[in-house]
Specification:
7 helices; TIM Barrel; globular; alpha/beta; about 240 residues; 9-stranded mixed beta sheet; binds iron/sulfur cluster
């Protein structure tokens, strides 16, 4: 499996649980606002044996793991890593995914406790936003339904980017989640042009205002509540 980096402990990736964060390399989407753009190439990261990943990721003061990237499910041996982490620590295991590889996700579910599921846009706009050769929506929808039908906690989340994502996108995601039987919190976070963003790709994009973000709360409907997470720009010293 290709690993880009491991952060010993994070208090912000899984609510209420300190986790060790494992970043995988490679992604099959090409979102213009990607904040980890150096991890998109399939050659990013370093091919690392699973026992070595487990050794580096365990023994910290965390109570679990968050696997992110890149897109972890493009790594076909992801289920093997998850199985090894579960057997070693027994702690909470969270996966960040955009859901475009349901076959790997299906094999991963037995070892997962929660999934942050990146809802990119309204279904009709997926291909335009993630810039793939073919429309990934059918596979993404399959993954959403798969997690909802499992015992794994499903945490939907969208990054709201002015100049790309609209209130109509958020509203359509809310209606979709409601139709699929999801009940609970749908988190919408603001985009910020962090150091990991490609400047040219993001030239027409901008950080939404707090007022724009707050207005999205009203789009909650049925059993779906829209919660807002406001990320501050971190200025380097
Ligand atoms: S899916 Fe995530 S990692 Fe992949 S390009 Fe989009 S934002 Fe970046």
């Amino acid at each position: 499996m290709r690993i880009a980096s491991i952060i010993d402990i994070s208090l912000v990736d899984v609510p209420g649980i300190p986790v060790t964060v494992i970043f995988t390399g490679g992604c099959n989407f090409d979102c213009p606002y990607c904040q980890n753009a150096s991890l998109i190439p399939t050659t990013s990261g370093v091919e690392t044996p699973i026992p070595e990943i487990v050794a580096r990721a365990t023994g910290h003061l965390s109570d679990g793991f968050c696997i992110t990237g890149g897109e972890p499910t493009v790594q076909s041996d992801l289920p093997d890593l998850l199985r090894a982490l579960k057997a070693t620590s027994g702690g909470h295991i969270n996966l960040n995914t955009q859901g475009s590889v349901p076959s790997t996700l299906r094999e991963s579910l037995p070892y997962l406790d929660s999934v942050w599921f990146d809802m990119k846009a309204a279904p009709s706009r997926y291909q335009e936003v993630v810039r793939t050769r073919s429309d990934p929506w059918g596979r993404v929808r399959e993954s959403i339904e798969m997690v909802l039908a499992s015992d794994v906690e499903f945490w939907p989340r969208t990054t709201y980017v002015s100049g790309l994502i609209t209130p109509e996108d958020i509203s359509e995601v809310v209606q979709l989640l409601d139709r699929l039987g999801f009940s609970g919190r749908y988190l919408v976070q603001n985009y910020i042009a962090s150091a990991g963003v490609r400047t040219e790709e993001a030239a027409t994009l901008s950080t939404p205002t707090k007022e724009e973000m707050e207005a999205l709360r009203t789009l909650g409907s049925g059993s779906v509540r829209v919660d807002i997470q406001w990320n501050e720009v971190v200025l380097s010293a």
